[in-house]
Design goal:
Elements: H1 2-24, H2 33-39, H3 42-52, E1 66-71, H4 80-97, E2 104-105, E3 112-117, E4 126-127, E5 132-134, E6 141-150, H5 156-170, H6 177-182, E7 196-199, E8 204-207, H7 214-223, H8 236-251
Parallel strand pairs: 1-2, 1-3, 3-6
Antiparallel strand pairs: 4-6, 5-6, 7-8
Helix pairs in contact: 2-8, 3-7, 4-5
Length: 252
Amino acid sequence: MGNRIGITLGVFAVLFVSHFFIKKRTWFSSFDAQYLVSKYTQKEIEHFSNFAFQNWRIVKWRENPRIKLLSNSQTRYYTDRDVFELVKACIQKSNRLLEEIQIYVDDQDINVVLTLKDSIHYNVRGRAPTYVSSIMIPYPTVIGGEVQVVVGNRKLDEINSTVFHEFSHLLGFHHNLELFEESEWTYKSLFNPPTKTFIDSLDRLVEDFTEYSDLDKAAIRIMYDKDVGIDPGLTKEKFFRMIEKAKKEMRK
């Protein structure tokens, strides 16, 4: 009995050490830092890193998100069809930026549910997806999610802004409120909660973004660029270490 326990613990220790070793080795990574720095600007790379590493590791999909559209909304300001058209337009625009995956609206093999609601607890405008990860060597991969979008009596451009914001979460990006606050609330990105600016000629507040900014689009392309090969689980430290190594090699 003691020998069996010893053997089991030994096997577990070997697997644990091997898994840890694999994760630390650069040559098990598909990330091509040279391709990244040659294709994207420093500003685009920094913007990507500001929002992709909020949990210190990359969170992304390997399989295609397949979304079922549901509605618990009783609003009569817009029909569900109106809002779902915004969602489908967001999906189309997102798919143009994605190489490794594509997003589908489907009733088969669903791994994401998007729900329209009148309100959510604390009256937030939307709810970030819930990520479900499967343990894969060398890194965990997202296999499911949830998106909730408040409709209510909001204007269509406000709803559209929320839709794009929530899809940025679905694709693996997070808020960076610390960066936002450090720049005195001027660092604009749809990855952060949507913001408004007062327009004198219109005499009202207008959404700063109703869809991804140019930098947001570049960040999404980086995340799912098959030639860049960003790995799920890639750490910020390793990301920049490999970039510096690539820059040195390119200067030779």
